[in-house]
Design brief:
This protein is α/β, with parallel strands linked by helices. The protein is built from 13 helices and eleven strands. A hairpin with a 3-residue loop joins strand 3 and strand 4. It is globular, with a radius of gyration of 21 Å. It starts with 8 loop residues before the first strand and ends in a 10-residue tail after the last helix.
């Protein structure tokens, strides 16, 4: 007997005049393409607006809504694009719909200047939030009750997600897929978009790129990161990685943070968690072996990092996302 296909996950793209075409495109690319043949869940992405009229977007574009605001109670996730002008007021019916959705417990995510829309609705009062680094002071000044974070790619507070500018919106969207549907689904979408599948939300927004005279150090750091990604199961330390780059540990840590926006230790932990997620989804390896192969050394350490970074346990993660375990790869 053929099992019925699971229901598509319902996603709402909230549209009103002034939203950014780039953010609309990112949301549509992540949730609007059918990738079920590659193991990605089915999504039902709807363009939701206060009225049926096409929503004008800068550059001579227009977005045609296909659902009204009364569809939002059906959505599992609501996406608020950024704004071309961050001071653009959202229509009151849109703000009211956002308040009702948040009261219901629906997850709401704002990209870049979309944080200003959530702030207009009063949803960010006394909460942590992000926006593009160049707009942080403006958000803080116009909405003094918002606890504007100085530097990160994306963050969550009270089921409300906000992100930094442009590319960080892609990171947030992929993170939301990863959190709801597993690392493999997010990686598959990232591959089709030809973008990095994983950047943790705690990375800095603004990364100092090496100047011309520092290319040698940049190449050394890139080589060390490539080495580390293929040797995550080994007991890597900042000192050993610094030695491989031909730098002192202190100099290595400084250059590494400038190049990646995060510290070497946090970078290692983030990628070890990603490796463990992949093993938990794709294999039926016992937990101690997953911990060893992903570089945590022990199941206890892996469990501690899963709890602090993902607010779950490795066993719970496997129960949620390992639908069809594959044979364990040889090591």
């Amino acid at each position: 007997m053929t099992r019925p296909a699971p229901a598509a996950h319902r996603i709402a793209l909230l549209a009103f005049p002034g939203i950014r075409a780039f953010d609309v495109s990112v949301i549509t690319e992540v949730w609007g393409a059918d990738r079920t043949d590659r193991g990605v869940p089915a999504f039902e992405l709807r363009r939701v607006a206060a009225g049926p009229e096409p929503v004008p977007i800068r550059g001579g574009l227009a977005l045609t809504p296909d659902r009204a605001l009364d569809w939002l109670p059906r959505a599992e996730l609501i996406l608020v694009p950024g704004l071309d002008d961050h001071l653009t007021p959202a229509p009151e019916p849109v703000l009211a719909a956002l308040r009702r959705a948040h009261a219901r417990g629906t997850t709401i995510a704002a990209l870049c200047g979309g944080a200003f829309t959530l702030a207009q609705a009063g949803l960010l009062d006394d909460r942590r939030a992000l926006t593009h680094w160049a707009l942080a002071d403006v958000l803080r000044a116009r909405h003094p009750r918002v606890r504007v974070e100085p530097d990160a790619l994306f963050l969550e507070d009270g089921n409300l997600w906000t992100s930094a500018g442009t590319a960080a919106g892609i990171d947030l969207c992929l993170h939301l897929v990863r959190a709801a549907h597993g690392a493999e689904a997010a990686a598959t979408i990232a591959r089709s978009m030809v973008t990095a599948p994983f950047r943790s939300g705690g990375q800095a927004q603004f990364i100092e790129h090496p100047t011309a005279h520092a290319h040698r150090d940049a190449d050394a750091l890139a080589e060390v990161r490539a080495f580390a990604l293929t040797h995550l199961h080994e007991p890597l330390t900042v000192s050993s990685l610094a030695a491989r780059a031909g730098m002192s540990p202190r100099s290595f840590a400084r250059h590494f943070t400038a190049a990646t926006g995060t510290t070497p230790l946090r970078w290692l932990v983030d990628h070890r968690i990603a490796a463990a997620q992949k093993l938990l989804e794709r294999t039926d390896l016992p937990m101690p072996e997953v911990a060893r192969r992903s570089g945590f050394g022990s199941e206890v350490t892996m469990r501690q990092h899963f709890a602090s970074r993902l607010a779950t346990s490795p066993r719970a993660y496997r129960a949620s996302f390992a639908e069809r375990p594959l044979p364990a790869p040889e090591r």
